[in-house]
Design a protein that fits this description.
The protein is 35% helix and 22% strand. With 333 residues, the chain is of the alpha/beta class. The longest helix has 15 residues. It is globular. One of its GO terms (cellular component) is endoplasmic reticulum lumen.
Length: 333
């Protein structure tokens, strides 16, 4: 249910798109008309999205106001904490959310008298899945052939980033403990490129780092740029914080940073220590290598504030370079 005051023109198309995919009904409420209803549920910020289980039990949605993110949130709420997978279900499951965890474990034994190391790993993973059910999607497979397809041993835990930035990563080749599994899940939970909004804006304002804003106007553009710039962001994360930001909602920030609103997407680097602003040439397409070079030049003191020139590059050359990596697509931890 979406609470509005007045109706949100930017969010409505995203809700409509999400509603076409989901089975649960999506309802909008105009709080200027239904004041008593909005007061009953303590709605004091607009727009607000909540998932209701009955009239009283509800969960507030705090993610990006985009159809794919809303769908992802709803799917997580409808799935069990842990889904057992087989050859017919695993491929669809891998792409069900931005980040999907799948454990490849030996099948359970019938011996009830003694707890084996494999039983302990399964218990740990199940417990972590239950604890993080509201945040992530967890699956489990007892088929070693499925692990082998991804070049993974048994046991191992993989994080598939099918709609997120960066490579898939796996926890393997170690003695599993609850601490290691929890640390792996927490490490994967930190987006290399986050989404800036009113609630977390101050968290990103770190004077010790450059702040790279990625202004977008459509969810598909955001998804594309997060994926294409993921490796650059990960490589430079010690020195640069990358964030995406919705120009439809935060256009005033783009304007203050001298972004031309008619030429989106846009990338702007803000050195908050010196209050200098560097704008990636909006006439050029945003390529990972060009962004990396621009950032290195800024970090090395080679650039002056303002619009940064971008060398002409072919998209397919960039894409080929960015897709190079491990044959199995996993960075092993």
């Amino acid at each position: 249910m979406e609470f509005l005051s007045p109706p949100s023109n930017a969010l409505f198309p995203e809700l409509t798109q999400a509603a076409s995919t989901l089975t649960a009904p999506l309802i909008t409420v105009d709080c200027t008309a239904a004041t008593a209803l909005c007061k009953k549920y303590d709605i004091n910020a607009y727009p607000t999205i909540r998932l209701f289980h009955g009239l009283e039990d509800n969960i507030r949605y705090r993610g990006p106001r985009a159809a794919d993110a809303i769908i992802s949130f709803m799917i997580k709420q409808q799935l069990p904490p842990l889904t057992t997978l087989d050859n017919e279900t695993i491929q669809v499951f891998k792409s069900i959310d931005d980040k999907v965890f799948i454990a490849y474990l030996p099948p359970p034994t019938d011996d009830d008298e003694e707890v084996s190391p494999d039983d302990l790993i399964r218990e740990i993973y199940t417990s972590v899945a239950n604890q993080n059910h509201d945040r992530f999607v967890f699956g489990i497979s007892f088929d070693p052939a499925l692990a082998a397809k991804d070049g993974l041993p048994v046991p191992s835990i993989a994080c598939y980033k099918t709609r997120s930035e960066g490579n898939n990563e796996a926890l393997a080749g170690i003695e599993f403990s609850r601490r290691k599994v929890e640390e792996f899940v927490q490490a994967m939970s930190r987006d290399v490129i986050g989404e800036m909004n009113r609630r977390n804006m101050q968290e990103y304002m770190q004077p010790s780092k450059l702040l790279a804003y990625i202004f977008y106007d459509t969810p598909s553009t955001r998804t594309h740029l997060r994926r294409s710039l993921g490796r650059v962001a990960k490589k430079l994360q010690e020195y640069v914080t990358f964030v995406t930001i919705d120009d439809n909602e935060y256009g005033h920030i783009a304007t203050s940073l001298e972004v031309r609103p008619e030429l989106l997407p846009a990338l702007v680097v803000h050195d908050m220590m010196t209050d200098r602003v560097f704008v990636y040439d909006q006439e050029a397409e945003i390529y990972p290598k060009a962004v990396g070079k621009m950032l290195l030049d800024i970090l090395q003191g080679k650039s002056t504030p303002g619009v940064q020139p971008v060398e002409d590059q072919k998209a397919h050359e960039e894409n080929n370079d960015e897709q190079k990596g491990n044959d199995n697509g996993h960075d092993e931890l």
